Amino acid sequence: MASTLIVPGLHGSGPAHWQSWLEELLPDARRVHQDDWSCPALPAWAERVTTEIDHARGPVLLVAHSFGCLASAVAATRRPQRVAGLLL
User: Fold this and answer.
1) What is the dihedral of CA 12, 35, 46, 3, to 10 degrees?
2) CB–CB of 73/49 below 8 Å?
3) pLDDT 10s per residue in the chain (88 long)?
4) Is the N end or the C end of the chain the one with fewer CB atoms within 10 Å?
């Protein structure tokens, strides 16, 4: 069974955002955190998503929003064998 990685976009996803709501519903979900939510830097953000994929047990589902979609797409191309699916 795949685990879920929540990948927010610019400014993160606050408590009322649909990603936060989904994260609460899925017991296996983990949020990918970025060093600076206000500075979208694709290489750094994609690297963080890739690292989280590497640390997950088994395949992952990436649930991304906004700039997190770009970071997730890049990370998925780096680890295609570990990504079970993407919701962008």
Assistant:
1) -60
2) no
3) 889 999 999 999 889 999 999 999 998 899 999 999 999 999 999 999 999 999 999 999 999 999 999 999 999 999 999 999 999 9
4) N
Nearest to 32 by CA among 54, 7, 15, 13: 7
Cβ-proximal residues to 30 (8 Å cutoff; 6+ apart), any chain: 3, 4, 5, 6, 52, 56
Is this prediction's pTM over 0.85? yes
Residue carrying structure tokens 């955002």: 17
The pair of three-digit structure tokens given for residue 10, joined into one six-digit string: 């610019």
